[in-house]
Design brief:
Layout lengths: L1 H10 L5 H10 L10 H14 L1 H27 L5
Helix pairs in contact: 1-4, 2-4, 3-4
C-alpha cells in the first residue's frame, strides 16, 4: 500500500512541483520570516560559505520536509478509493 501511495503521489496531477521547488529554496529565509526567493538564495550562499556542513544539513532537512509533505497532502485531499 505504501509503494502504491508513493507512486500515486509522484505521478498524480495534484502534485505541484513548482511549489515543491519554491519550498526547498525558500526554507532558509522562512526562519527569518522572509518569503522571497532572491533573499533566500543569498542566505543559502552565505551559509554555504560560512559553514558547508550546516548548509548540507539544512538543505537535506528542507528536502525531507518537502518530500514528506507530498504524501500527507495527498492522503488528506486526494486519496483514491482503491488504496
Amino acid at each position: 500500500m505504501i509503494i502504491r501511495l508513493i507512486t500515486a503521489c509522484a505521478t498524480g496531477n495534484y502534485t505541484d512541483w513548482e511549489k515543491f521547488g519554491r519550498g526547498l529554496v525558500v526554507s532558509m529565509s522562512q526562519v527569518y520570516a522572509v518569503n522571497d526567493i532572491p533573499t533566500s538564495i543569498m542566505m543559502n550562499i552565505a551559509v554555504l560559505l560560512a559553514s558547508p556542513l550546516n548548509f548540507i544539513t539544512s538543505t537535506a532537512g528542507a528536502l525531507i520536509g518537502c518530500l514528506l509533505g507530498i504524501p500527507i497532502y495527498y492522503i488528506k485531499y486526494n486519496l483514491p478509493s482503491d488504496l
